[in-house]
Amino acid sequence: MGYLVGVTALWAFSFSLIGVYLAGQVDSYFAVLVRVTLAMLVFLPFLRPSLLRGKQRLALMALGAIQLGIMYTFFYHSFLLLSVPEVLLFTIFTPVYIALLDDLMFKRFTPIYLVTAILAVLGAGVIRYDGIDSGFWLGFLVVQGANLCFAIGQVGYRRLAADLPPTLAWHNVFGWFFIGAMLVALPAFLLFGNSAALPSITLQWGVLAWLGLVASGVGYFAWNQGATRVDAGTLAIMNNALVPAGLVVNLVIWNRDADVGKLLLGAAIMGASLWLNHWWLQRRKVAAA
Asked: Which segment of the chain is annotated as a signal peptide (predicted)?
């Protein structure tokens, strides 16, 4: 739990750093490439290939490609379409995706998840009810792409860890995670990146260095380690703890313009969807007891 709390505090600043200093100024594909490269360099010196079998290495690389490489590509593009508070609020769907993926894995279906998802979409509409446009909904869908990738990565990492020795030194194998992310980030930049939109000031390079070395390198290692040490319910809750933490950082430190009333109302509806989801899960546990 301590890992998840610490990373939540760390990542709370990342949203605003991206939204204020990078979005619309630095090519998103380049930003993703730099973050992944720096994070990979943190763990390459510790890499011990002999600790994992070939399929296990490929599985960890695939998780990195999805949870970091593809997710970051979606994530950075969302800041071009939405404000920082909106991006934060729309990450609230991740726990639902975790639950749905768990249902899929165990071949069952829980209709209540569809109800809670519809409520959350309603909350998203309230936030911009007087200014909904195609860009807003496109941004909403892009964030959901990032959420889904993050959820797949977490569930997959937990499953992989369960099949590995509990004494495994994860810092000696986690480099494969970032190598997998690099296999997505590098081709994406080469194919779609804009070399004319690279960082132009020292501050932007500094932000990228912080995001790559600390938020990505240390952050993803600690978060995934924490994900293997708690139950799925706690993991789902901690996925949403980032939302209020990030909003506080953005609105208090950067003082971004936002209609706080609409944000609170939309967040309340989203919160109600999560409460309904939690209530149903608790009821199902009691009935099964």
From this structure: none
